[in-house]
Amino acid sequence: MGSKKYPYKGVLDLIANRCMASGTNAFTAQDHTAYELTTVGSDGFLKILPIYIDHLLSPTLT
């Protein structure tokens, strides 16, 4: 699993850990699915945001 621009398994978690993030998480409720990402500061968040959005908008589900 990955995304169109980053077609590698686990790349999002790898980059998140390098940006001092606590990793990624998701959960599904009755009426929605939420995806979580927590970073230490805004620098790490801004670095990982484009990659995270690409995983949400252009996933490769293989």
UniProtKB/TrEMBL annotation:
Which terms in the Gene Ontology molecular function aspect does this entry carry? metal ion binding
Gene3D superfamilies, alphabetized: Metalloenzyme, LuxS/M16 peptidase-like (3.30.830.10)
User: Which InterPro entries is this protein grouped with?
Assistant: Metalloenz_LuxS/M16
Q: Which PANTHER family match?
A: METALLOPROTEASE, PUTATIVE (AFU_ORTHOLOGUE AFUA_4G07610)-RELATED, PRESEQUENCE PROTEASE
Mind telling me what this protein is named? Hypothetical 111.2 kDa protein C05D11.1 in chromosome III, putative
Q: What is the lineage of its organism?
A: Eukaryota, Metazoa, Ecdysozoa, Nematoda, Chromadorea
